[in-house]
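anyone seen this seq b4? input:
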Amino acid sequence: MININIEADCGNAPKKTFLKDFNIAFARNDIGFILDHVSEQVSWELVGDRVIRGKTDMQAALEEMAASPMEEMTLEKIITHGTDAAASGRIKMQGKEFAFCDLYRFGGFKGTTLREITSFVVPL
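predicted toks r here
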């Protein structure tokens, strides 16, 4: 079972609360939740690795990643401004620790549909 630590101040900002839930969904391999909150034309860049385009390809990538589940996630910061947002923290997978920072672009000022994600992951 995964250990999830939330240090981020989610306050009463709806997008911060959503991004907390979105990151928890990643940690738990909740592919349905993730796909319900991205656009059909989503672009997900895993910096230094690949760019995933479209919901179908994102689903395939998430299913592939589920083979190496997270052991622990600490969500340290969430920042939102207009249609842009960021979340950062640390994860443990296969006994290794990584720092991450994800940049998000929402489809509009209202709602929780993501159209772009850029993920930076650094081994520690």
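The domain at 3-123 is CATH 3.10.450.50 (Nuclear Transport Factor 2; Chain: A,). The radius of gyration is 13 Å. kinda curious what u guys think
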